[in-house]
Amino acid sequence: MRIDSSSTAAAILPLVGGPANVTSVAHCMTRLRLGLADPSRADEEALRAVPGVLGVVVDDGSYQVVLGPGVVTRVTADFEQLLARPSTADELGARGAELREERRRGNATPFKAALRRLAAVFVPLIPALIGCGILAGINGLLLNAGWLPGLSPALTAVASAFMALIAVFVGHNTAKEFGGTPILGGAVAAIVVYPGVAKVTAFGVTLAPGQGGVLGALAAALLATRVEKWCRGRVPEALDVLLTPTLTVLVAGLGTLYGLMYAAGAMSSAIGTAANWLLATTGAFAGLVLGGLFLPLVMLGLHQALIPIHTTLIDQQGYTVLLPVLAMAGAGQVGAAMAVYVRLRHDTSIRTTIRSALPAGLLGVGEPLIYGVSLPLGRPFLTACAGGAAGGAFVGFFAMLGDKVGATAIGPSGWALFPLLAGNRGLGLTAAVYAGGLLTGYAVGFAATWAFGVTDRVAARVPAGATSRGSGSGDPGGPGSPTPRRSS
Question: What DSSP designation does 485 have?
């Protein structure tokens, strides 16, 4: 059933304290992310009861309403239209932003704040990574099959241009997030990919275009932001428009060429070497640990630290070998949900939730199943982790045999990752290994949940409708997790 986005937005607004309480609006793939001046004014229980709302997540400086893919984009647009009306537009002024910033500084630890800022830099790039990754996969199929040879150069250009210039976008977003001028951050980061750096020698080594990749671009933009802020407080106002951008680009640019590119290049190489060694040497065990712990990492928000690692691997090697292993956590979640569906055959409400959320889960969007099924019940969340561990071990085992499975973009998982798969032994074998991992995750997640996840006592006492809504504060974008209902 298609959700009426305008009605949903209109229902959400008063339940988060009205327009006067909203200081910012954004969205990711599944959530409406709101900055609230006073989060205590929001009515969480009433929000969860709004048709189309899958869960509510509170993460220090962010109040997140889980809506699901597709729906969130439409609801966000309608929500912003409500706020943009003349009667409410002034409520998004400077005072609200200052209150939100004060609350975030007071509640956030430096580590959590750093993770959120990393996410703010890289998450906006995911749609382009997905689109270009899929086109690269299609182009690879055409090249291998020998079809449409005249189209391949054009597809290569379309699919590769973004990755060739990704450093510029990282620099732009970094400066924007850390309080600098975005275009200056992009200008300094562009040095990393400029072909002319091949004529520059640093530490006795000739630089190469792209050396340091996204990490170099991130560091370059951070340096540019620091230099710009230093200049703003010291350069006379009459000369600010001329001197500040000039000094920012000059000082940060030289620092990038004669320090940051070299250091970031060494770090990027180390990341690639470590990832390949981890799976090639301890593949099955590494897959077991990564696949089993990824759902808890997501609930704590620590998965955000992996975003620049994935991006670095894609920029360096063409694909990330970590994402297919981590995607097995979603397979365990699907298997667990299937077992709950069978065991709780008399709970019409939860079975309806599973039926509606399962297609998204198969395509790698696990939040509806997490907030609607496994976390409220408790044990199925743990047995889903067991399924993820088994699937990860399966993929990791083949990595030990030399069969790498990678993804050319981050974002999707589940069956949606198939168009983005890449490896070193051909697409057929790569897809077969990944599919085997998914099936292993489904099977073990189902079996573990059937045996241990839902006891007969729980099956008999779960009231209809008790788990039809997401709950709690656990979140892929923030720390904490809801207190699950005990299953024994």
Answer: P
